[in-house]
Fold these 4 entries.
Entry 1:
Amino acid sequence: HSRQEIRNIAIIAHVDHGKTTLVDKLLQQSGIFRDHEHVQERAMDSNDLERERGITILAKNTAIPYKDYLINIVDTPGHADFGGEVERIMKMVDGVLLVVDAYEGCMPQTRFVLGKALAHNLTPIVVVNKIDRPAARPSEVIDEVLDLFIELGANDQQLEFPVVYASALNGTSSKNADQQDDNMKAMYDTIIENIPSPTESVDEPLQFLVTLMDYNEYLGRIAIGRVNRGIIRQGQSVAVMTRDGGMKQARIEKLFGFQGLKRIETDQAGAGDIIAIAGIKDINIGETIADPQNPEALPVLKIDEPTLQMTFLVNNSPFAGREGKWVTSRKLRDRLFFELETDVSLRVDETDSPDAFIVSGRGELHLGILIENMRREGYELQVSKPEVIVREVDGKKMEPIERLLIDVPEESTGAVMESLGARKAEMVNMINNGTGQVRLEFLIPARGLIGYRTNFLSLTRGYGVMNHAFDSYGPLIGGQVGGRHQGVLVSTENGNATLYGILGVEDRGTLFVEPGAEVYEGMIVGENTRDNDIVVNICREKQLTNVRSATKDDTVKMKTPRLFSLEQALEYLNDDEYCEITPKNVRMRKKIL
Ligand code: GDP
């Protein structure tokens, strides 16, 4: 492709607004797949865990041929834990598609990713997706998007953003809200017309910035990025400019371009191309691959600081080794350090004990995914309660603040506001559009959200929806930020359980349920503040499926014992407890002092 025929774009959205479906459809309709080839594999989420959680953890590249053009689409994770990656991707592209659900409108992750795109001077194409939904409200959503652009400081050019209305599900699109064409042509054309082609020159000395890392058993480390200028050739010698200002020699063993979802080996690539390079052993994100005759480094990429840390320990319970195959400190250490190969925002520190490591990451999701992957690989380990990493800025202690957006039935508004007040949340917006649902927006210390979800679900009888994303660092607020009556998570052995943990946040040690009560895994018990009853919520896959009341001394019986979800466990873990993780189970246990 000539440079004029290349379009490099990122796709950004709140989770579930339809990125993956959209890219799938763009690929399908571009005709590069024969019909049976796209059935199973969805374009972007290739890892099971990503698919289950509906998130994209590592950015994935898709290259879509359209007429004489090549559209490179880089997927971005919407979750704030992966903000550093989003920023890096913004530097690699010339435009973005912002996908917004035509019913849900702008959500915290929409705000988060849009903020990054605008800050990088990109003019997003706004895709109002799911236009087929019966409750779709496209014109209101466009107004919301415009407000958000203004609030985030968009410049005049950015405020002129192009809009495409689409149903990724049906494979239709249009520039017009009222009627859909029966294909994605409007979408392709809007991309071709509005996203600039790369302007870098192939005639200058080579520069390539390593922006993303992948790893493959056979190829080792794979560096992904955009050729910033010049030409890169398979087999050529290059200089690698390291993050610390050093320089070393290397050879380009293998060079790949992208075609559809595949990496295709290629002889050479030029300025503006997005490529993958294998064979440089210790290559890392932020390093520049340059012409050895003319080695110049690009500005070093910023890597996000960790905000949350946990201790990872060898499982030393008397039952260790029964359920997992990897149980020694050596194995644990190797696995954690291996993770550093591809994950730059992770930090692993050794401790005085060879059995314990302090693992610091971007948030609960980031660390939770690592733990879950290890569990599935056969590791047994213990993890401690996550702790927010407080930062020193100009001699002041600062803590992470989240922006929380909630939709609740009108009648629950008072109770929800009260519960968040106790957690030191500050309300910044409230919209009551008379539909019976109220949208509230808060800024809240990240600590205050730990363990809030169950409380919130019982206050809204399961009808509330909450979403949050990192906003900023703010002065550390003194004291506890937890609510009064948080809830109890229980753990079991063989389905018949003893109660291990009383997990109030402020009322630590208060008994909500008699110890020894018969309970089953997956059960969350919390106090209903209004009538002092105990409300029992059974959480399945984060969905509240059943609510019933019980009195304080009730023995509660339930069928279908199931695992804790790891997220629940991490959210509710108390200081004197740890979580035991094995391939078969996630258990909360009291620390033996
Ligand atoms: P992602 O998290 O942004 O990648 O979202 P997905 O592409 O996985 O879509 C999330 C859900 O929304 C899936 O159940 C899709 O089938 C559904 N979805 C995606 N696009 C549309 C659409 O245009 N209309 C409707 N009704 N549903 C859609």
Entry 2:
Amino acid sequence: RAKDEGGSEHCQYEPTLHVHAEERRKLEASLRHALERDEMSLNFQPVVDANDETVVSFEALVRWNSEEHGFVGPDKFIPLAEDTRLIIPIGTWVMEQACIEACNWPSHVRVAVNVSGEQLIEPDFASTVIGALSKSGLEANRLEIEVTESIFLRDANVARAALEQVIALGCTVALDDFGTGYSSLGYLRKLSFSTIKVDRSFVQGAVQGSAESLAIINAVVAMAESLEMSTTAEGVENAEEAEFIRKLGCKKIQGYYFGRPMPAHDARQIFVREGLRRA
Ligand code: C2E
Ligand code: MG
Ligand code: MG
Ligand code: MG
């Protein structure tokens, strides 16, 4: 294992590297049993219409409460799951649970599920989606798949073909964290995305007076409009930011201001408050 991490001679002189690998090995061993031990759960974060502030969808966000490691954030275990292929069973579980929960919501409310590139290039990705839809009874048009631009870096054609299959089923695809990493406008032509999600860093930047961030949001909104795509601003944390973003023309807003990621039970209470019942 140490050899994989950069050569055994390295390890002798840099014990921290070894500790790091050991830590990772332990995390991986625990992650391998997380599903069967029932340690995974989903939180749901509301996305609201920028104009009337009603909930239009929830994004499903996976949580891991490990017996050995306590709460581990997705930013830490998702990359590990991707490296070890554990993202395949975990992703399938997330997809199913998200679809099952969405059946408890009013029928105009959709659910968004994050999908990694590793999942998309599995030959049976579309079958996984079909399975989750039929098992839950959720209509395909209520499921949105969220992907990042990174899926186009490797096996781009395979990933695109997989997404086209689920679009054919009636699902929609959103481009997540837009503007971070490997952004290229060319990616927007590769698929009919329904929504572009503007990364939180631009929202925060624009509110704090960054001319670059503001220019990028304006450009994304204009481009999305001409391509008949919707826009969601991520990471809106207060009323001032919400108003600012609404004026820029973003169609939907997601962020702590309108609701943090919350357990399924709490998400359902939002509809009780909005006076909506399951349709
Ligand atoms: P993401 O898909 O961009 O999800 C949004 C992240 O921003 C979430 O972090 C959410 O809690 C956080 N967030 C939302 N509103 C605000 C805000 O107003 N302020 C701040 N500071 N943060 C906000 P989370 O839940 O830690 O997830 C991190 C990332 O992990 C996600 O980013 C997504 O890329 C990945 N992830 C989460 N669940 C899954 C999953 O089921 N499958 C896959 N493949 N990836 C997942
Ligand atoms: Mg997302
Ligand atoms: Mg995002
Ligand atoms: Mg993100």
Entry 3:
Amino acid sequence: SRVIETHEINKTYKMGSEIIQALKSVSITVDRGEYVAFMGPSGSGKSTLMNIIGCLDSPTSGTYILAGKDVSDMSENELAEIRNKEIGFVFQTFNLLPRASCLDNVALPLVYAGFSKAEREEKAFRALENVGLGERTKHRPNELSGGQRQRVAIARALVNNPSIILADEPTGNLDSKTSHDIMELFHELHAKGNTIIMVTHEDDIAHYAHRVIRLRDGLVETDKINPNPTRGV
Ligand code: ADP
Ligand code: ADP
């Protein structure tokens, strides 16, 4: 089934008297369980598109349907609600709370979802186990390696069982070996049925995805199935 459907999405920014067309009539669909990489040069519209897909921003015109709901004209509050329910975010800079334990970092999205403390801790522990960090629940982010921090962030993205994981340059701050370890984890998560959309400018990272969409100047330049994605070892 379809999890994302954009119909002729436009996004314009006003800079004084100048109008910047960041997205030009972008129509894409993503099915549940797909693993997609967005590529494209700086300024091509990747962040703008990810922000719209992640319900952090709305298109200027066009329609965006997320998990069957038209979110194009939703208010900030409605967007926040659907974002917490449907989207798990992974960032280049991890965005973890430095003073909170791994368990508390991972449990944070569940606070807004209204689970009890015991339920939050149980779910957060499961999510940490799921990324191989079941033994690190009490550690703080600065007591972990970069790869482990990104795993904590991935556990946080997964904890609410979202419809999609949106990863913006997830390996951008990691060395090559650690980057491939994280892609290994994405491979496993995809194999378990998760839907993943990531932005990367690295070809060898994009090659793990099963479909690669290239943007240029706010347009979809190519949208190709990767016939031979890099596999986990
Ligand atoms: P943003 O999300 O801030 O709009 P991008 O998604 O374009 O920026 O890029 C994220 C990071 O990757 C930035 O630090 C940018 O400098 C870097 N970057 C983007 N494209 C390239 C590229 N082709 N080669 C090297 N670094 C890049
Ligand atoms: P990418 O992520 O591929 O680097 P962006 O989506 O960040 O591309 O940017 C697409 C275009 O929109 C660029 O020309 C950029 O300068 C412009 N842009 C992005 N965000 C804003 C903003 N908040 N205000 C004005 N222009 C913006």
Entry 4:
Amino acid sequence: MLLQVRELKVGYASGADVLRGVDLSVGASSVTGLIGANGAGKSTLLKTICGFLRRRGGAIAFDAADIGKLQPSQLAAHGIAYLMEGHSVFPGLTVEENLILGTWAFRKERARAKQAVERAFELSSVLRAKRKVKAGLLSGGQQRILEMERLTLNDPRLVILDEPSLGLSPKLVHEVFERIAQMKADGAGVLVVDQSARHVCAASDHLYVLRLGEICIEGPAASFSDRIDELVRNFI
Ligand code: ATP
């Protein structure tokens, strides 16, 4: 397994544990979906894996090495890419300039950086059409596509996505999940949290349901596909 989370306990300040012993794994070349009600602890789990919060207990391993004490920048250098909730484009720079900034890992290999940017334009017709447009003028959905492309420019091994389809039009939601499938085809492990349980289930190999800080259900996503409404009704 690429990522292994074991018995993870996390809380804020002096409050009670928000995550109360979470076990979760993500394999290479696969998509793992995580769904759950508002406040279940999904974002807390992703932030902890990505080094923005410290665990109170348990273990987080990437490639079998303990990463629980690393900083976000160190995790990025290890090949872990994280799309947070909200927007993080540079509004005054063009789409192309935003992508060029995203190739930091290849800063000493200009040809490779250029190739990565061109591939992003090949993969996304939305961005291709807006190449020279300032990112701040894109719609929220287009900005989200730009963020996702920028995230994958450095060939990450693990991609962690928090609500990538939030507030997007159906066409862009489709593009987001197509892009997730491409990340898997490129060999990355993907961990995705999204409000759309149906889309997450369809895109995932393995599905977890988080409830009140604990995994209450997990299994191959295909085993839930014909009862996803029931799952949402009972647990989300
Ligand atoms: P949502 O879908 O609404 O984003 P979530 O499943 O991602 O929900 P979290 O954002 O991880 O849930 O929140 C889990 C719990 O932790 C909630 O009870 C929330 O109020 C609490 N929490 C989140 N951030 C903080 C914080 N900075 N300080 C204190 N408590 C927090």
